[in-house]
Amino acid sequence: MSLINMAKREINCKIVYYGIGLCGKTTNLHYIHQAVNPHDVGEMVSIDTETERTLYFDLLPLELGKVHGFNIRFQLYTVPGQILYQQTRISVLKGADCVIFVADSQASKLQENIECWNELQEQLRRMNKDTANFPLVMQWNKRDLQDTLPVSVLEKYLNPYRVPSFEAVAVTGKGVIESLRVGINSTLRKLERI
Fold first, then answer.
1. What is the C-alpha to C-alpha distance for residues 152 and 172, in angstroms, rounded to an integer?
2. Which of 27, 148, 150, 158 could form a disulfide with 105 if both were Cys (CB 3.0 to 4.6 A apart)?
3. How many angstroms separate the CA atoms of 117 and 136, rounded?
4. What is the pTM of this model?
5. Coil vs helix vs strand at 10
């Protein structure tokens, strides 16, 4: 749920990049941080460990102007993908206004992607979020690799709600800004209904 700070006249929205380990979540944020006007972004915070590239989160405040006299600020987070960090994923997911699910398109990663998608749906249910109406974006990442599944297969197994989806190559930025733009617009539409 978006946080409204009446004193600062600011609405803070949270977008979480969710997916298996090494699927490209952190790469998305690094690309966005470099591509966006330096005046519009804050400092990116990254905590790395020996076993996981992003142990806790990347934070990227993104200023988007004003709505009804309130400044809109988006904070972009990633979750650690490794199984042993499930509790951290749950903590980061709390309060999310939108999730961009980053799927590794390699055929060898399909089962991991399915398990991660099922975990996300379960966590959203536990937070009393209706997955069918929650702002979600699917990103089919690593489309530049040899062993990728057809998009139709990814859609079949990972996009039952037919939410917007994008082919991506996060290392080059393909599909990254498009995914974020739809995530932001979905979040803003949800805010207008509140």
1. 23
2. 148
3. 12
4. 0.93
5. strand
Name the residue among 95, 153, 105, 79 with its Cα closest to residue 128: 95
Q: What is the largest CA-CA distance in the chain?
A: 52
Handedness of CA 194, 10, 29, 126 (dihedral sign): negative
Which residue from 76, 95, 73 is spatially nearest to 31, judged by alpha carbons?
Answer: 76
Burial (CB count <10 Å: 0-12, 13-18, 19+), residue 13: buried
- What would you report as the CA-atom Rg of the chain, rounded to the nearest whole angstrom? 16
- Strand pairing partners for 5? 10
Identity of the amino acid at 113? N
Can you tell me the distance from the alpha carbon of 116 to that of 106, in angstroms, rounded to the nearest whole number? Answer: 15
Selection from 12, 69, 66, 17 nearest residue 42 by Cα = 12
Question: Tens-of-pLDDT digits for all 194 residues of the chain?
Answer: 688 888 988 889 999 999 999 999 999 998 998 898 887 888 887 776 666 655 445 566 788 877 778 888 899 999 888 777 788 888 889 999 999 999 999 999 999 999 999 999 999 999 999 999 999 999 999 999 999 999 999 999 999 999 999 999 999 999 999 999 999 999 988 887 76
Extents of the domains making up the chain: 3-192
d(CA 123, CA 141): 23
Residue 146 CA neighbour count, 13 Å, CB half: 0
Provide the token pair at 146. 């040899």
